[in-house]
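Many introductory courses stop at the sequence. We go one step further.
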Amino acid sequence: MWMLRLPALVLALLTLAACASNYVPKGEPSIYRDLAKPGAELDAAAAASVISGYRASNGLAAVTLDPALMKLAEAQASLMAKRNKLSHDVGKPFTARIKESGFDVKLAAENIGAGYGNIAEAFSGWRESSSHNANMLLKGASRMGIAAVYAPNTRYKVFWSLILAAPDDRKG
């Protein structure tokens, strides 16, 4: 009796598989959202998820978004966009900026970038650069801040700042 039902079961599974292959998600994942246009917003939680997943695949702890680091990253990306200059030292050096940020820092690193149109491109670019990759894989980092600022009148169109850090648990 079950042999008679086997063809019907196979046909049902093939029909389901065909339907599944035609599935089109509603909207693209936010890591592919074009940030080189007015009003586009970075999905910081998605960026943290991508970076945390990458860190996990390399045996490292996840990072969570930190308000002070988010503010610091936003300020750096905004200043680079305003001055149309890609530099860690466009305002003050990173070490001075992080000390003044209110984040009790134990260790920290900063990646900057320009011209990446979305999170996926920025992540891939940083991963392909040995120094930027080392920052994303900073051992002991547990917090992060990220920003992307649209600058339409510049060559790059989008300026990025990513900060990975760990708080100094001995303080406060």
